[in-house]
Every structure is written in structure tokens, then in C-alpha cells.
Specification:
- The chain has a 23-stranded mixed beta sheet that branches.
- Helices cover 9% and strands 56% of the residues.
- It has 311 residues and is mostly beta strands.
- The chain has two domains: 4-37; 45-307, 3 Solenoid (Pectate Lyase C-like).
């Protein structure tokens, strides 16, 4: 992916070159910027292309360990009922290509599965227009997937534990059955849709938590800055926490927890659920038999709790 900083820098460089060349042509005395004056400089080509540098399949069996570290490339993980892993890399360019050096994707066997990687710092691509390099990874549903680098990341269809720790989101997981260990270390939202887990941990430093039809025996999700929205959440034990943002949660009827809700600055509102509310900033709600303990809190914002549908 191309960053905003790279794009702006490229625009500035080209504008300086155009100004310098125009001035030189008119006066004959204004020197060109150094990068344009060197004999090795070549004017960029206008290019539009889509190609597939890598499309390879390795037989692995039904439950390989799949390690993914593609740094800042857009990665998607999908499933197919085949005892093999397939990797498809796609590169699309459209515009003025100043530097077409891409991140080469490596796909190789390991002792217990496969590894998909790119070298750190390899993707120095400057394009005025559009550049997109994506990696699509198709795995068996019971593959043990571990992601340590991708921006953004989308995963769907797994029936086993997923571990994903990336720098920048968004991080999206859909149609998942199995434990989750997720984090976004810098900024980006975490989106979960149709997820059921035994243990679920999801943390982002700066971004929203958006959950729909999510349930876990133990669910801990936090964000330092961002709102939390959870629709039809099955809660037993755990917590939803943000330091700065509103929290809106509708609980599925098969929840079984005593819920403690609190806001340091704002109010707690409960709709359609039996609750005890001693003050504006806190409330206690019993879901089912109230066997588990679940906390919902924000340091700054409003908390809204309501009855949802079955998950």
C-alpha cells in the first residue's frame, strides 16, 4: 500500500522538477533540482497494469501452522476444504510510477506448515496515482494461523485459534469458530462479525471496537481511544473497556453474567433489562442466572445497555 506521506512527497518532488525545468527553459539560468539534473534521472512512465507475480499451492494436510508476516501489505485469509495452502499475490499500478520496487512475497515450507513473508523495508514504492499490492492466502478451515504483519488484515472462515498482532488496522474477522488473540499496536479498528470463541482477546491502541453476533466464555476487549459497539453479544466473563468513547452493547438472551457498567464522565442507561442503578454513573445488570462477571466501562462517554437477539 502507498502511504499518504509517500504520495505527498512524490507530488512535491515532481512539482519542484516542473518549476525548475520551466524556469530554466525561460531564463536559461535557473538550475534544475539536483535529482532532475543528474544524467541518471528518467522521466516517470505512465503505467496501468495488473499482474500476479505469485500463485502457488503447497500440500500441507488439514491443520498446518501458517505464519504470515507481510509487513504493510493488504492480506486476506480465506478457507477452502482442501489439505493445502495457496498464496496469490496481486499487484496493480495505475499512474506515474517513480519507483516500482515492490515487496517480493516469499512462500515456503516450515517444519510444521508454511510461512508467507516479505522482507522488512523492501517496499519503497512511489507512485502518483494508484498502487495496490495484496496477498490472498487460502488455508484449510482448521489451520493454525498466526499473523505478525499485515496492513490491513481480513480473516474469514477459520475453525481454529487465530493469533494476529499487527501494527496498523483495520483488523477484520468474520465467520470464525475458535479462540482469538488480536491486537493493533498503533491505530485501527477491530471488526468482529459472527464469531464464537472460548477465549477472545482484542486490543487496539487507537480505534473502534465493532462487534456483531460475537460470543465467548471469556471476552476481554479494550481500546485506549475509540467507541465500542457490540450487537447481540453473548457475555459470560470478561470486560469491554475504552478510555475515551461511548459504549453501546445489546446482549444476546443466552448470556449468563452479572454485568457491572461504569463511566467516569457520562451516564449509564439500561433498556429492556432488569437492573440496579444506584447512581447516574453506574449500574448492575443480571443476564440469565448471573453466573459470570462482565464489566463494561469508559472513562469518558456514555454507556448504553439493552436486550439483543440470540447468537
Amino acid at each position: 500500500m502507498i502511504s499518504r506521506t509517500t504520495l505527498i512527497g512524490a507530488l512535491v518532488v515532481v512539482e519542484l522538477g516542473i518549476v525548475g525545468m520551466a524556469a530554466s527553459a525561460v531564463t536559461g539560468s535557473v538550475p534544475l533540482p539536483s535529482m532532475f539534473a543528474t544524467s541518471s534521472f528518467q522521466m516517470p512512465n505512465v503505467e496501468e497494469s495488473t499482474r500476479t507475480p505469485l500463485d502457488r499451492t503447497l500440500a500441507t494436510g488439514p491443520s498446518p501452522h501458517v505464519l504470515i508476516d507481510v509487513h504493510d501489505l493488504h492480506a486476506t485469509v480465506e478457507t477452502a476444504n482442501v489439505p493445502a495452502v495457496r498464496v496469490v499475490e496481486t499487484v496493480h499500478k495505475d499512474g506515474l510510477v517513480l519507483n516500482g520496487r515492490e515487496e517480493p512475497v516469499s512462500f515456503e515450507r516450515t517444519a510444521d506448515g508454511v510461512r508467507v513473508t516479505t522482507p522488512a523495508g523492501a517496499g519503497d514504492v512511489v507512485v502518483i496515482g494508484d498502487f495496490d499490492q495484496t496477498v490472498r492466502i487460502i488455508v484449510p478451515p482448521t489451520a493454525q494461523v498466526e499473523v505478525t504483519g499485515a496492513e490491513p488484515l481480513e480473516v474469514s472462515g477459520l475453525r481454529s485459534k487465530l493469533v494476529a498482532h499487527i501494527v496498523t488496522g483495520p483488523l477484520t474477522v468474520k465467520n470464525h469458530r475458535g479462540d482469538l488473540d488480536l491486537s493493533v499496536r498503533s491505530e485501527g479498528r477491530i471488526v468482529l462479525d459472527d464469531v464464537q470463541a472460548g477465549v477472545l482477546a482484542a486490543n487496539t491502541h487507537d480505534g473502534r471496537l465493532l462487534f456483531s453476533r460475537v460470543g465467548a466464555d471469556r471476552l476481554d476487549a479494550t481500546t485506549d481511544s475509540g467507541r465500542i459497539s457490540a450487537v447481540d453479544l453473548r457475555a459470560i466473563n470478561g470486560a469491554l473497556t475504552t478510555r475515551d468513547g461511548h459504549v453501546n452493547v445489546s446482549f444476546a438472551p443466552n448470556s449468563d453474567a452479572t454485568v457491572s457498567a461504569h463511566t467516569a464522565s457520562g451516564s449509564v442507561r439500561v433498556s429492556g433489562l432488569a437492573s440496579e442503578q444506584s447512581e447516574k454513573h453506574s449500574a448492575t445488570v443480571q443476564l440469565g442466572d448471573g453466573e459470570g462477571h462482565f464489566e463494561v466501562s469508559t472513562d469518558s462517554g456514555q454507556v448504553n445497555l439493552s436486550q439483543g437477539a440470540s447468537v
